[in-house]
Amino acid sequence: MVSDACGVAKDLFEDNWTASNTDGKTPTFSKVYDKKEISLATRDYVLTYNTDLSAKFNGIGSSNFMKNFIVTIDIRTAYHPDKDNTLSTLSTVTGHQHMLKMSEEVERIIKLKKADPGSPFEIIRPHGTQLDLSDKRKGIFRFVYEVELIETNT
After folding, report:
1. Partner of 82 at 20 to 30 A CA spacing, among 24, 106, 140, 151?
2. What is the pLDDT of residue 47?
3. Residue 74 near residue 49 (C-beta atoms within 8 A)
4. Domain boundaries, the chain
5. Prediction pTM value
């Protein structure tokens, strides 16, 4: 069986997202290589992509592998409340605050599903890089968050 860490991460966030935690908006979830281009003018995005994979034997004398997949969660928004006609009432939340709420929702889901992120993975946990790559001048708010998905006995 082929392990699709990127797809499992996408499905995990898509299936467990609570829009009320992110100003009533649910982003579009996708593997980055499934999208030719994105338009932040109308939607928020949570994109996933594989960053690294390390495999090693699962203990001395074992012929099974333990695989650690590193997946990057790329949160992107151009949220601007006075330009968003999907909101029922005008919000005072800034684009940067909205992006931070989205990153907190990602963390909430990781905590919720840390021991059962989706088959065939047993564990999901934060890993390494967590960067705010926002560009206020362009009105684009972006947060990159790495997670590690662990699969044993392959």
Report:
1. 106
2. 95
3. yes
4. 5-151
5. 0.86
- Element (H or E) spanning 50, and its range? strand 45-57
Q: Tell me the average pLDDT across 33-50.
A: 85
Helix and strand tally (H, E) in the chain?
2, 5
Would you say the C-alpha torsion 6, 8, 10, 13 has a positive or negative sign? negative
Contacts of 83 (CB under 8 A, 6+ apart): none
Q: Label residues 52-75 b or e (16+ Cβ within 10 Å = b).
A: eeeeeebeeeeeeebbbbbbbbbb
Mean pLDDT for 66-92 is 77
Domain 5-151 sits in CATH 3.30.420.40:
no
Residue 35: how many other CB atoms lie within 10 Å: 11
Q: Which sign does the torsion angle of CA 10, 12, 17, 22 carry? A: negative
